[in-house]
Every structure is written in C-alpha cells, then in structure tokens.
Amino acid sequence: MKILVTGGAGYIGSHVVLELCEHGYDVVVLDDLSLGHRDAVDNRAEFIHGSTLNTADLDKGLNGVTAVIHLAAFKAAGESMIDPGNILTIISPAH
Ligand SMILES: NC(=O)c1ccc[n+]([C@@H]2O[C@H](COP(=O)([O-])OP(=O)(O)OC[C@H]3O[C@@H](n4cnc5c(N)ncnc54)[C@H](O)[C@@H]3O)[C@@H](O)[C@H]2O)c1
C-alpha cells in the first residue's frame, strides 16, 4: 500500500513518514521545503520536491497512491497577519 504524506519534511510529517516506513508501507512525500527539511525525510520514502498548490506536482504525488495524509501547512497564526494575501491564495487559489 502506497501512502502520500504532504508536508512529510515537516515536524509532524517526518515522524509520520518514519512510522509508516517502519511498518512496511510504501511512502511518497510531497513537500515544497518552504518550512521543512529534506534531511528529515526517511531515506526509504520517495521524495518529491513540489507544492500541493501545483497540479502537476499533485498528479505526480498521487500516482498509484491509496491514501493521503495531508500535513502540508503554514501552521503559525502570525503568518496570516504578516501576509494575508498569501494565505488567501492557499485557501482559494482563484483569488
Ligand atoms: N506541531 C504540532 O505540535 C502540531 C499539533 C497538532 C496539529 N498540528 C498540525 O499538523 C500539521 C503539520 O504541522 P507541523 O508542526 O509538522 O508543521 P511544519 O511547519 O513543521 O511542517 C509543515 C510542512 O509543510 C510543508 N509545506 C507547506 N506548504 C506546502 C505546500 N503548499 N506544498 C507542499 N509542502 C508544503 C513545509 O515545507 C513543511 O515541511 C499542521 O496542520 C499543524 O497545524 C501540528
């Protein structure tokens, strides 16, 4: 079973990826490394450097995948105060 973890290079995601690999799952990570670290991703996982906001990257990440664990995020509340336009683009790309 192949599982896509978005944000898999982040704090929570990298631990989820490690656990999935330890339990024998095929894991693919989609992360744009805006906040995460490539070195945090378990070597057993496939890594795609890309964004959930990019359709081509998503298509690549979803190829052959049975389940998705979506952890890509800008979690700090302050970011929406500093750059609200960017957050609006993420929530609703048509803006
Ligand atoms: N850290 C906590 O204690 C905690 C607790 C409960 C819930 N959460 C939730 O878990 C999720 C992940 O939190 P975290 O602490 O791992 O954050 P994090 O910042 O460490 O990881 C987020 C990851 O998402 C990536 N990312 C951001 N936008 C992306 C995009 N458009 N496409 C691809 N990758 C993208 C970043 O590069 C980063 O690696 C958030 O939704 C957060 O609210 C976190």
Explain how this protein is built.
With 95 residues, the protein is α/β, with parallel strands linked by helices. The protein has one domain (2-91): Rossmann fold. Helix content is 36%, strand content 20%. A four-stranded parallel sheet has the order 3-2-1-4, with helices on both faces. The chain is globular.
Topology:
Layout: E1 2-6, H1 11-22, E2 26-31, E3 46-49, H2 55-62, E4 67-70, H3 77-82, H4 84-91
Parallel strand pairs: 1-2, 1-4, 2-3
Short description:
About 35% of the residues lie in helices and about 20% in strands.
Q: Kindly report the average pLDDT value.
A: 93
| CATH homologous superfamily caption | NAD(P)-binding Rossmann-like Domain
Distance between the termini: 36 Å
- The third-level CATH topology is Rossmann fold
| CATH level-1 class | Alpha Beta
Using only CA atoms, what is the Rg? 14 Å
Keywords:
single chain, 95 residues, alpha/beta, Rossmann fold, four-stranded parallel sheet, 4 helices, 36% helix, binds nicotinamide-adenine-dinucleotide
